[in-house]
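Session log. Operator J.P. requested a structure for one protein chain; no other inputs attached. Running the standard single-chain path with token output.
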Amino acid sequence: MTVDNGPGWVPEPVEGSVIETPLAERVEAILLIIDEPIALVALAAAVHAPVPAVRQTLEALVEEYDGRGRAARRGFELREVGGGWRLYVREDHDDLVADFIGGQAPARLSQAALETLAVIAYKQPVTRGQVASIRAVNVDSVVRTLLARGLITELFADSETGAINYGTSDQLLAHLGINSIDELPPISPLLDDGADGFEEGVVR
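Structure written below.
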């Protein structure tokens, strides 16, 4: 028998029971870790909730982040792009973020980062999945590092899959001392057969 001890009383969980966290918290947890827009259906599956409920939660979060009602506007926003949802820094703060990233102490790139950067440079536009397929390893963290360093940039989102296509940035060109990607050295002499790991149509 459960005894109510008055207003504000919260019953202790029954041993073996599961207390489900609020849907909005679960949705935010997923949104914080994704690198590319996530489709509504995929998000609903990830948080174990019906699609209509997740859509309603997303719409409520958009209003909350935008400062509608009594909530204070956040420095980030939730947008639906390319058929998927993702958190973005507000355009008002682009310069602030760029200055912060540019002011970070430079560090040498790891071998993994250099290899990933090379694939993106010669294959662009290219998705994270395509880079991972070429390198045969997960490249999520490496791509995040290259983005944070300003060496690559998001070009566009695939209209069908929502996958982000990446390319090199003007900052990388400046670091390399070249004016365009066409000035990159030919890749063929560096490969065993001139095409290993790359498809036709890449910069030669």
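Operator note: Residues 74 and 118 are 36 Å apart (CA to CA).
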